[in-house]
Design brief:
two-stranded antiparallel sheet; 30% strand; 5-stranded antiparallel beta sheet; 4 helices
Length: 210
């Protein structure tokens, strides 16, 4: 094969290659739009007002203490439940305790008045805690915003708010503590003190289609 034919074939091959490459490119119309989206999370912001529910001294067996406080939902999300956890520390002044001071401090009631509604008219109080010592409460986590109205109360239209705490709302709480007089020798507790810590933990409502 002559050099001219070889060059001719080379040129043809090159031209074919260029044609193939050229055939692989094409022009088209296009239009682009950008969608800017936002996912903003809500907030759970629970407050106890006042933050110190009780601060009392010089107690003796038989004393009863009634206090009032509010649970406030200052967040943007509704709260489905508020678990109450109890912890305490006993300061044994004389170092002679054989019993737990927490067994002698009883919560007579912790009432959610907003959930009680008008149930009190028939004696139905929404007590989330009733007749329970601090010692026993350590193993319990009652829901402070649960509606416990009796069905008769609901039937009569006397019930309070539904369970939970809506954003921007608050529930009024009443609590009564008793230093139980057990008609026995309680001298070991003279001069002692008990530091109570109540932790309220709010939980969101279930997720929903948005």
């Amino acid at each position: 094969m002559s050099i001219k034919k070889k060059l001719g074939m080379g040129i043809a091959s090159a031209a074919l290659g260029i044609a193939l490459v050229g055939g692989g490119t094409f022009a088209y119309f296009s239009d682009t739009e950008v969608s800017n989206n936002t996912f903003a999370a809500g907030t759970l912001d629970l407050a106890v007002n006042p933050s110190v529910v009780i601060d009392v001294d010089n107690l003796k067996p038989g004393d009863v203490m009634v206090r009032e406080f509010a649970l406030e939902n200052n967040g943007s999300l509704d709260i489905s439940s508020i678990e109450l956890a109890t912890a305490y520390n006993v300061i044994d002044a004389k170092g002679d305790n054989v019993d737990d001071f927490g067994k002698h401090i009883k919560v007579l009631f912790l009432e959610n008045a907003d959930k009680t509604g008008d149930g009190w008219v028939i004696g139905d109080y929404n007590d989330v805690i009733s007749e329970t010592t601090l010692y026993d409460l350590k193993n319990m986590t009652p829901d402070a915003v649960e509606n416990l109205n009796h069905w008769i109360t609901e039937l009569l239209g006397l019930g309070g708010e539904d369970s939970g705490l809506a954003a921007g709302d608050n529930d009024q709480m009443f609590v009564a503590f008793e230093f139980v007089d057990n008609d026995a020798d309680q001298n070991e507790f003279q001069g002692d003190s008990l530091e109570l810590e109540w932790t309220f933990t709010a939980h969101q409502t279930e997720g929903e289609l948005r």
